[in-house]
Amino acid sequence: MPADLSRRKLLQAVAAGAVVLGFDPISRSWVTEAHAGGRGPKPPKGPPSPLDRIPRLDGELVVEASALAEAADDFGHVISRTPLAVLRPGSVKDISRIIQFAGAHGLKVAARGQGHSTYGQPQVSGGIVVDMRVFDRIHAIGPGGAEVGAGVVWSDLIRAGIEAGVSVPVTTDYIELTIGGTLAIGGIGAQSPKQGLQVDNVLELEVVTGRGDVKRCSPRKDAHLFRSVLGGLGQFGIITRAKLRTVAAPSHARFYVLDYQQLETFTADQKRLILDGRFDGVQGSVVADGSGGWTFQLEATKFFNAHRPPDDGRLLAGLSYDAGGATITDLPYFDWVNRLAPLIEMLESLGAWGLPHPWFDMFVPASKVNAYMRGVLSELTLADTGNGPVLLRPTLTRHQTGTFAQLPDEPVVFLFDILRFAPPVPSEVQRLLAQNRDFYDRAKRLGGKHYPMCAIELTQRDWRDHFGRDWRDFQDAKRRYDPRNLLTPGQGIF
């Protein structure tokens, strides 16, 4: 049955105040209490349809229009795929039960946290979306690590950690993301040059595999599953709980913003800083100069406690930023972590958060980054970005711990982001998607790897190239942990 027809039947059932009872494998739709009691749409004449009752759940399987509409969307507002139902689990066992039930009926399943991807990655047409936000409990936190539900957002964990005197080693720029979501793709932040990706700082996981098995895994226990799920794009299991490494939380952060006119000087100083390790965080931005060109800002952070402030002269020694082009700000540690909050609040108030976001995110080898960026920036206009941020940040690959998170094969790489705000005009969105594809192809020819939450239409050949020498292992892990190919179809890998 077409998904849109099934959805109409579900909406009719909701209007009748129905509760889902089971699945009709012939019509490929849910059977509800309203149907069973004769209050819903009358079934066609003939033999009664079979009813495979849903398993006993501690939570609920939801078919309300609002829940389906939310699950059909993501932050990108570019792709929309409507599920047949949303699972709001009351326990981890609910996910296991629904995966096994879905497998018996050929239904796809995807986990969704905050839905902050930009090209339909957590969506599933005609299947079941698992709302992971219910797993929002911080179970324990201290010097030995933080054990949290996958639906906890980073901001809540960081607040709780500061109270306990600790923090996570790497914080994303935007901290209203679920922990399970970023661990599924990698998780990068200002501290990554020193600390690696977020997936490189995980001690243990609880996972529900595509077989429906609930597993605890770590580098010492079921290590293959552990490494596969981290950066595995939701292909092998759904992360339900994680134990994360913690470090001592500083009281303050000194934030340096240094201006550059020249790309080559900017990237050279970024590379120098992450190799000598003098700062705790290094990032960078590409900024419109007001006349159609671009300038650059290096953003560096040094953590400290109030009684021992940093030595600015030592930290800035040898750098080639523009004369007079340095701004230095001291912030309480959480205010630094949450430094985007005022901007986000403004964008939300202007309605920009609801615009299409055909974002572009690509890792480029350091040896090729200047040539690549010169070409891209000669074509990119401020209108192409919708005044959204353009970022160019370096990191080191030596921290990789054998997960499926992919970086180019060089010691230093740069992540280039165009965090676009597009007008809600289909032709303009398609133009920007085509530009994304062009920029992707150029970077790929140079050995680049995309960061897989962005808006790029990838072929299966692209995915094989993305994983490169890990592709065979990626396929083997899929066969081992999700042999029925149920999980996360929105990535378009299999």
How would you characterize the overall build of this protein?
- The protein has 494 residues and is of the alpha+beta class.
- The strands form five sheets. The chain has an eight-stranded antiparallel beta sheet with strand order 18-15-17-16-20-21-19-22. A five-stranded antiparallel beta sheet has the order 8-9-13-11-12, with helices on both faces. A four-stranded mixed beta sheet has the order 4-5-7-6, sandwiched between helices.
- It starts with a helix and ends in a 13-residue tail after the last helix.
- The protein is built from 17 helices and 22 strands.
- It folds into three domains: 3-133, 2-Layer Sandwich (Uridine Diphospho-n-acetylenolpyruvylglucosamine Reductase, domain 2); 135-248, 2-Layer Sandwich (Uridine Diphospho-n-acetylenolpyruvylglucosamine Reductase, domain 3), CATH 3.30.465.10; 252-468, FAD-linked oxidases, C-terminal domain (Vanillyl-alcohol Oxidase, Chain A, domain 3), CATH 3.40.462.
- Strand 16 (281-288) and strand 17 (294-304) form a beta hairpin.
List the uncertain runs.
1-18
Task: Calculate Rg over CA atoms.
Answer: 24 Å
Mean pLDDT over all positions: 93
The biggest beta sheet is recorded as: 8 strands, antiparallel
Class by helix and strand content? alpha+beta
> CATH top level of the largest domain?
Alpha Beta
Q: What's the β-strand tally? A: 22
CATH architecture of the largest domain: 3-Layer(aba) Sandwich
CATH superfamily of the largest domain: FAD-linked oxidases, C-terminal domain
How many structural domains?
Answer: 3
Strand content: 15-25%
Helix content: 25-40%
Can you tell me the CATH topology of the largest domain? Vanillyl-alcohol Oxidase, Chain A, domain 3
